[in-house]
Amino acid sequence: MSEIDVLFSGVLDLPWWGCALAALALTHVTIVAVTVFLHRHQTHHALDLHPAASHFFRLWLWLTTGMVTKEWVAIHRKHHAKVETPEDPHSPQVVGINRVLWGGVFLYVKEARNRGTIERYGQGTPDDWLERNVYSRYVVLGLALTGTADALLFGIVPGALIFLTQIVWIPFWAAGVINGIGHFWGYRNWSTADASTNIVPWGILIGGEELHNNHHAFATSAKLSNKWYELDIGWMYIRMLEALGLAKVNRVAPVPRFTAPRLIPNVQMLQAVITHRYDVLAKYDQTLRQAERMKLADVLSKSRALHTVYSMRRELMALWERSTASKVELVRRLQDWCQRAEASGVRPLVEFSRRLRSYA
To answer: The pTM is what?
Structure first.
């Protein structure tokens, strides 16, 4: 065997396109491990995983990324808790899109060294013998084993290229694209308080994480797609695991249901409005556009109807932000809001209030 054969031939002896497909398949398994295990299962408890599935994902992530579960979970939870503030570990709104897109991995490493973050936000992650003595302690060992296996299977040169692809795949797509572009550019289904966006409607390449605005609206949902035209491939894998008895879905985003309009707002209506608050805001924004299809800043001072709609939107949002108010007080405020909306004389606002009374 020549020196070239030694460099380019492995046990599998694949052509160049076969090596490219192998790299894509291997990195896709890593993406699935991140979105299903680290993100939806460990961080947000949107689903439970069978110990066999859970440990497979832990092992795979140790071999291919060197990421420590507790660190990843803690950093992402802090991102949700401190989103778009100076304490957010990776907000492009704070540090700039280029720094997050191209240097997201460095922001991750910096936050991983913050022991306060890890201890405060990393609770409930695996803490067994393997985690303490292997996965967390010998991070480089897993990567070394993977690099060796790639060289043996695909040849030294193709194996090195495949290994390099595996190493940079998550830092670029997850730490860079999702954390960067996912808070900078795209479309929004829901009026969340942060700048999160859905990058594209079809979450295939990054396991469904492309639907980032949907995730920030319903963080504990195991399914990231909300609209009929959106695709979350991670949800497909979850359903496959569920069919095999390896997963149990705990929560998905609520789907609005409606009843006959209530004459008087009550606690059940209040709970329904809070549960479906993003749908409420989406329909309210349609009301705003119906009331006045002009630039907001130019017409607020000139249009009584638009000013009424705009100011009452802020009051409605305050309903679910009053965490210290009692249910009785919140119901009273909701009753008052509906009465004023229906007495405003603004037809779209009147119709919206009647829709609000119908949420179940």
So the answer is: 0.80
